[in-house]
Amino acid sequence: MRVGIGRDLHRLAKGGRLLVGGVEVDPERRAVAHSDGDALLHAIIDAMLGAAGLGDIGDQFPDTDPQYQGADSQALLKSAAALLAGKGLRVAQIDATVLLERPKLGPFKQVMCENIAADLGLPVESVNVKAKTAEGLGDVGRGEAIAAEAIVVLKQG
Ligand code: MG
């Protein structure tokens, strides 16, 4: 068994759409990013790569590479799973927390879990997403940023 941890943070800006776990949670704001800015999926990808000893998301999908401009993070998640499979590893379990002041993410958590589980070929019970605010404190609390943390367990095979 191998374990990895991931963390991500993106600045928020007006316009566009905010994706979290592949779900549009805000149609009027976006995460400022080279890719689609899905902080939850980025934290999970980093945890997966970390657990496999494959570095981080920037090593595998560099933001200097034009092919990742506006990249679909669900596609990156599947690519990360393929890299793991190349080392004989697969995701067994994911636990994650998203920090966002608004909107409240409670109504979206189940769909996020279903998206992630489907992309990774996991039973939905193996994916857990929690959502918290920052109680008005700091960059997340002021509504200027979204952050996410994830822990991933990998198994052989
Ligand atoms: Mg990111």
Offer a quick outline of the entry.
The protein has helices at residues 39-52, 57-60, 73-86, 109-120, 138-141, and strands at 2-14, 18-20, 23-26, 29-31, 89-99, 127-132, 145-156.
Q: Looking at CATH, which topology would you report?
A: 60s Ribosomal Protein L30, Chain: A
Please give the number of β-strands.
7
Structural class by SSE content: alpha+beta
Low-confidence stretches: none
The number of distinct structural domains comes to: 1
Q: Roughly what is the average pLDDT, rounded to an integer? A: 96
Unique bound compounds: magnesium ion
What is the CATH homologous superfamily assignment?
Answer: 2-C-methyl-D-erythritol 2,4-cyclodiphosphate synthase
Helix content: 25-40%
Give the percentage of residues in beta strands.
Answer: 25-35%
Largest sheet: 5 strands, mixed
The CATH architecture term is: 2-Layer Sandwich
Q: Rg, please?
A: 15 Å
Output the number of helix runs: 5
- The arrangement of helices and strands along the chain is EEEEHHHEHEHE
CA-based shape: globular
Q: What is the terminal separation in angstroms?
A: 11 Å
Describe the strand arrangement of the main beta sheet, using strand numbers.
4-1-7-5-6
Under CATH at level 1, the class stands as Alpha Beta
